[in-house]
């Protein structure tokens, strides 16, 4: 049996004789001669628990758009957004210039576009929005200041088929939306003029879904393939980093004429159109995490040529066309994700141990 030769040993703490423990703080040590054990106090790590992301969101009805229409454009966030343009065929005039602003509950009239059109794309905020493209005259750009629209720089190509647009009013990137070879074109906007950028890497396409609030982080997904090339529709996703495009994870549901919201690593897709699966494609919603798409709650009704605005967890979807009735929709739906569960950080508690001597 070992024999203690000194009453105090200098180490990380001190060793003392006696059975009465000293647990005033960690690093203390004492010797119990009765049990012939050396006791000590120590810190014990209690690992934290990871949080969980928000669950699948749900769609609920909200304030209707004053004029039912499809192929419109949206911009902003759930409590401060807008929709503009679009088509109300067969009602005349077919193409619209009206802008409607959303406050999280209802729409009210805003300033009208200078040029009525449909199939345009939008980005930015309610008080600083940007739209480009659309039919007729797909080279038009307009900027909104919260009250009125003014013309911006002319687009160097004709974008009449629902292109994609990401970024801000003064730093945006527009892509796709043109028939044949132009369906891979990319152009960047600096608040005054457009310049050509590197082309998309995938199919020539139009009627795409899109997301992103930065010129350097844009997302394109789905769409129709231009040039009469089978399979005519795509579930392809492409990501733009400000210089080049790269392939992302494919959508689960093939479709065109869909709406989108959010960012490159947290996007939401909803609605759309695919002849082989009308009901599913026009109600389906999916979320994107930067790598893969996951199915989430369906829209309450079938919608194609729809648009909206917001984030992945708090989005708005407005307008579009219903199926099979083919009615110009004025309905608005809000998407809200389930609550996230917060995690806990690592912590330490006082513990003790012993060594037989």
Keywords:
single chain, 357 residues, mainly beta, 4-stranded antiparallel β-sheet, elongated
3D structure, described in words:
This protein is mainly β and 357 residues long. The protein is built from one helix and 30 strands. The protein has a four-stranded mixed beta sheet with strand order 1-2-3-30, with no helix packed on it. It has a four-stranded antiparallel beta sheet with strand order 4-29-28-27, with no helix packed on it. A four-stranded antiparallel beta sheet has the order 5-6-7-8, with no helix packed on it. The longest helix has 6 residues, at 278-283. It is elongated.
SSE blueprint:
Blueprint: E1 15-17, E2 29-32, E3 37-46, E4 58-62, E5 73-77, E6 80-84, E7 99-102, E8 107-109, E9 121-125, E10 128-132, E11 141-144, E12 149-151, E13 164-167, E14 172-175, E15 186-189, E16 194-197, E17 205-206, E18 209-214, E19 217-221, E20 224-225, E21 237-240, E22 245-247, E23 259-263, E24 266-270, H1 278-283, E25 285-288, E26 293-296, E27 307-310, E28 314-318, E29 332-336, E30 347-356
Parallel strand pairs: 1-2
Antiparallel strand pairs: 2-3, 3-30, 4-29, 5-6, 6-7, 7-8, 9-10, 10-11, 11-12, 13-14, 14-15, 15-16, 17-20, 18-19, 19-21, 21-22, 23-24, 24-25, 25-26, 27-28, 28-29
């Amino acid at each position: 049996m070992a024999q203690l030769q000194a009453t105090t040993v200098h180490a990380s703490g001190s060793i003392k004789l006696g059975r009465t423990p000293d647990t005033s703080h960690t690093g203390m040590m004492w010797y119990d001669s009765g049990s012939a054990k050396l006791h000590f106090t120590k810190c014990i790590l209690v690992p934290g628990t990871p949080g969980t992301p928000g669950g699948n969101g749900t769609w609920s009805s909200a304030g209707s758009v004053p004029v039912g229409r499809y192929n419109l454009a949206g911009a902003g966030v759930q409590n401060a957004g807008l929709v503009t343009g679009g088509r109300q065929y067969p009602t005349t005039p077919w193409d619209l210039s009206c802008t409607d602003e959303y406050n999280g509950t209802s729409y009210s009239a805003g300033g009208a576009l200078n040029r009525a059109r449909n199939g345009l794309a939008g980005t930015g905020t309610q008080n600083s929005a940007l739209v480009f493209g659309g039919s007729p005259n797909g080279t038009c750009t307009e900027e909104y200041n919260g009250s009125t629209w003014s013309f911006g720089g002319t687009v160097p190509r004709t974008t009449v088929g629902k292109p994609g647009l990401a970024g801000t009013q003064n730093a945006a990137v527009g892509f796709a939306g043109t028939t044949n070879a132009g369906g891979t074109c990319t152009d960047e906007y600096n608040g005054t003029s457009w310049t050509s950028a590197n082309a998309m890497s995938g199919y020539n396409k139009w009627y795409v879904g899109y997301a992103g609030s930065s010129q350097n982080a844009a997302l394109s997904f789905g769409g129709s393939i231009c040039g009469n090339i089978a399979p005519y529709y795509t579930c392809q996703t492409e990501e733009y980093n400000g210089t080049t495009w790269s392939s992302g994870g494919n959508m689960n549901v093939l479709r065109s004429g869909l709406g989108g919201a959010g960012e490159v690593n947290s996007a939401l897709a909803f609605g759309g159109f695919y002849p082989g699966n009308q009901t599913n494609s026009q109600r389906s919603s999916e979320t994107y995490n930067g790598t893969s798409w996951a199915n989430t709650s369906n829209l309450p009704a079938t919608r194609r040529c729809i648009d909206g605005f917001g984030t992945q967890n708090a989005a708005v979807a407005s307008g579009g066309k219903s199926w099979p009735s083919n009615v110009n929709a004025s309905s608005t739906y809000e998407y809200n994700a389930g609550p996230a569960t917060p995690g806990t950080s690592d912590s330490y508690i006082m513990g003790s141990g012993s060594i037989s001597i």
